[in-house]
Structure formats: structure tokens, C-alpha cells
Amino acid sequence: MIKTTFAVLGILLGWMHHAYAWNQVPMNTQIDQTNFLMNSNCSATLIDKTSGLLLTANHCIAEQYTIVEREHVDENGKVTTEKVRIAAPGTVSQLFFKGPNEVSRTGYVFKIVKSDSALDLALVQVQTKLPNTQDAKIACVEPVRGDIAYAVGNTAGVLYSSVSNGIVASVNRSYRALGLDGDAGLTQTTTPIGGGNSGGALYNDKGELIGVVVRGMQSIAPIALSVQLSDIQAFLKDLLPAN
Fold it and tell me: Nearest 5°: phi and psi at 222?
């Protein structure tokens, strides 16, 4: 009887840990400090407040690129024309509210630091010192099916800093398995999202970033698809200061 009681108590404490590990006060502070509106219709997450680095989806900054032709003169004086991809600056913004009313909006110009179309990831850097006091930490441990997950982003591009929760439904998805171009892996969650969530953060129950939202699927049940943590870690290798 005593062993059974302790077993039940252990299960309840474990459930309570998962239900309340990331409580509302630190959650709301982190969302307010780290979520950004990317180019008015996407989302981005501050991952280094000192350097002003934000993580987002590559398709959110695809329009920043233009192809121009340049003449190249070799050592023999021969002139050839080559096509060069040029990245134009974009803007990210943070919004502030009093109740339902937007009271201020601060915009920042950014430059593209790195992008990967295959993974659908991009890293951008704002061109001025941010006043933000908190950034999102990248998780060290891969999520597993059944873990609690939170999606944060700007749903529809107008519902700023929306948060939804669910669970990790699968860590074994890929673009190819879904009939889409690409071989990269994806994490499937039941977090409800909409257009505008692209580039936003997927967090675990400790408030650690475990994914970047890149796709949603319309179905009976909510399906959100995110870039996997291992790909994010590889993409950011040597780009963030050591903790």
C-alpha cells in the first residue's frame, strides 16, 4: 500500500512538473522580450541580445534577395557578365500593448547573416543596440514524442505574440514523406498555428527553443511542422558566443 501511494505520488509530481515547469510569469517575460514581427508578415526569435541575432525561417526573408548582373574583367582584360545575389536590408519590429490597444512599435533594420533554403532557416542581425534584456536559449536535449511544446509567433501577421501549446506528435517527419521538395527532417506538434507563425519559436516546457516553425497543415487536428533541433544546432555552430 505504501509503495503504491508513493508510486501514484511520483506520477502526480511528474505530471505537475510538466504542467507547470514553465510558469506564466517567466513565459510572458520571455515572449515579450524575444518575439519579433519579421517583415510585417512572419516571426523571428531573439537568440542573442548582445549581438542582436534573430532566428527565423528562410522563406520569410526570401524577398530580400535580388539577382543583379555585374561585369567581371579578368587578368587578360576579358570582360564577362556574372549574376550575383544581393541581400537587401529588411525590418523587424516589436509591438507593445496596453490591454487590447497597441501603444508603440519599434522597428529595426536587419542584415542577413546566414541562410539555408534546404533547412528553411535564416539568421539575421539588427543594426543597432537592442534594449532587450533577455534572449531565447537553444535546448541541448532533443525532444521526444509526447513532450509538451509551445509555439510562439505572430499568427496571420496581426495576432502578435500569440502562444499555443500541444505535444510533440512525431520527430520522424520529413519534407519528402509529406510529398514536398527537400530531405530535411521535421518535428510535428499539435500546437495550433496560422500564417504569420512561420519563423517563430517552438519551445519545450523549460522555455528552451527546440524548433523553428516553418509549416502548418489544414486538417481535423492541428498539425505544425518545425525545423528540428539538431539542424538548428548545426546551422548555428560557431555563430553564437559560448555560454
Answer: -65, 130
| Largest Cα span, the chain | 91
Q: Hunting for cell 499539435 — which residue is that? A: 190
SS3 165: strand
Q: How far apart are the C-alpha atoms of 223 and 220, rounded to whole Å?
A: 9
- Distance, in Å, from the CA atom of 41 to the CA atom of 61, rounded to the nearest integer, reads 10
Residues 145-168: tens digit of each pLDDT: 999 999 999 999 999 999 999 999
What cell does 167 get? 505535444
Backbone φ and ψ of 171, nearest 5°: -115, 15
Residue 1: its pLDDT value, please? 53
pLDDT band at 17 (very low <50, low <70, confident <90, very high): very low
Give me 13's grid cell: 509530481
Residues 221 and 207: their CA atoms lie apart, in Å, by 24
Task: Name the residue with cell 528552451.
Answer: 208
Helix H or strand E encompassing 84 = strand 79-87
Q: Are 80 and 74 in contact (CB under 8 A)?
A: yes
| Rounded distance between C-alpha atoms, residue 66 and residue 208, angstroms | 34
Confidence of residue 5 (pLDDT cuts 50, 70, 90): low
